[in-house]
Specification:
The protein is mainly α. It contains 8 helices and no strands.
Length: about 220
């Protein structure tokens, strides 16, 4: 039974929101912009989110062409992407920021580096985990204009919510406390793990259905 547009949109929203994880980014954002004035902090946040949204949108709209060029089937990417997202969920279960979205270098970057680009936009808000999710969702949309439109709206909504969360980052951190943030991160990790397993199962089912249809 094919899922409805509402179900597709809801699943896309939950998956992308969990991977972007604005609550998990909030401590890093507060630390990175601690010495900036309020106006500069808002400017950095806005630019970071615009860049992150642009990167995500690029892979949402250009995903099918990219996979076709690489010769990767939808089923193969669903399986590999699901495994990658499952690995990403494991650190979250321990209340940590997944390494798929964490900067490899020192958080504050190097001298002269724009923190709106690195590490805020890439990889904190649009790292490999987000890119993988965008490609997986695009595959599931199957070039349906309605579903592709939903993905664009969902992505915009996720980054709009991320803006609200990070804008109030200091107050949220003070209100929730580090312990509660880690609890929320663990819950999101469980959700992401379940979604990742479902992607793998869908990929395997699609692969065997394709084999049966060819035989």
């Amino acid at each position: 039974m094919e899922e409805s547009l509402f179900q597709f949109g809801l699943k896309a929203f939950v998956t992308l929101f969990v991977v972007v994880d604005p609550l998990g980014v909030a401590p890093s954002f507060v630390a990175l912009t601690d010495e900036l004035e309020t106006a500069n902090r808002r400017n950095v946040l806005l630019r970071a989110l615009i860049i992150a949204f642009g990167v995500t949108l690029f892979f949402l709209l250009g995903g099918p062409a990219l996979l076709s060029y690489l010769g990767v089937t939808v089923h193969a990417f669903a399986i590999s992407g699901g495994i990658l997202l499952f690995i990403a969920s494991l650190p979250m279960l321990f209340g940590q920021r997944t390494r798929l979205q964490s900067p490899e270098r020192e958080e504050h970057g190097t001298m002269g580096e724009d923190i709106a680009i690195f590490p805020l936009a890439i990889p904190l808000l649009s790292g490999p985990g987000t890119i993988t999710t965008a490609l997986l969702l695009t595959n599931q949309a199957q070039a349906d204009p309605s579903r592709m439109g939903i993905l664009v709206v969902v992505s915009a909504a996720v980054y709009l919510i991320s803006w609200s969360v990070l804008y109030a980052g200091e107050r949220l951190m003070a209100g929730f406390g580090e312990g509660k943030v880690r609890i929320i991160t663990r819950v999101l990790g469980i959700v992401l793990a379940a979604l990742a397993v479902q992607y793998v199962l869908n990929g395997l089912t699609g692969y065997y259905d394709a084999l049966i249809s060819r035989s």
